[in-house]
Amino acid sequence: MKIATYNVNGINARLPVLLRWLKETAPDVVCLQELKTPQEKFPLQAIVDAGYQAIWHGQKSWNGVAILARDTQPEETKRGLPGDPEDEHSRYIEAKIKGIRVGCLYLPNGNPAPGPKFDYKLNWFDRFTAHAADLLTANEPVVLTGDYNVIPTELDAYKPERWVNDALFRPESRSAFEKLLSQGWTDAVRKLYPDETIYTYWDYFRNGFGRNAGLRIDHFLLSPQLDKKLVAAGVDRNVRGWEKTSDHAPVWIELAD
Known about the structure:
Helix content is about 25%, strand content about 25%. By secondary structure, the protein is of the alpha+beta class. The chain has a single domain (about 1-255), classed as 4-Layer Sandwich (Deoxyribonuclease I, Chain A). Helix 3 (about 115-135) links the parallel strand 7 (about 100-105) and strand 8 (about 140-145). Helix 3 (about 115-135) runs parallel beside helix 4 (about 170-180). The model has no long low-confidence stretch (mean pLDDT about 100).
């Protein structure tokens, strides 16, 4: 099974890019972030015509997450992250697909830090970590993937010294990510490529992609049941170079049956 994650940075604005990528790579499952569209304006027919069924949690102008599955309907298991009924951001959706529970997340950016937005990021992270712990106790195969907005280590940033005061790289964010991993999750890309420079995001400004001045902030975490089934992982870096593309590139893993 091939599972991908892609922060599309506006699904309707980037729809030609998304459809081209789906046609060329045909992942079995796709998690999307930053839909930036209300629920009723999700381009479902175009997705269906491409061979996928979908569930999504839209939000006008901001956020938004979706899970697509090729030739099957995702069975939704959760919409929104537990722990704060006042939080109306569309940042988490979860489904069962062919025996695997897939959580798709768009973790808050948190800038400027310190400040209320950073506090919200850390609070969201705490809630997500608690939910992840609950998922592990169910003793079933789980993938938690999406835009984590966390640079885990210096290897994951071009010139990391420039990011020391950024919410993505502050010690609190990195510590939260480490705490999550310590529950027993596997960082899939780092398991296969422990020492390689791999980026998933390049800023539009200052020719970030051309200079390969990137970040690795889109991650796959695997439960112990899937750790040994991981056979491949990668970044479809070329997609970042397409016209009118997102500032993220799709990231994918392959799991043995």
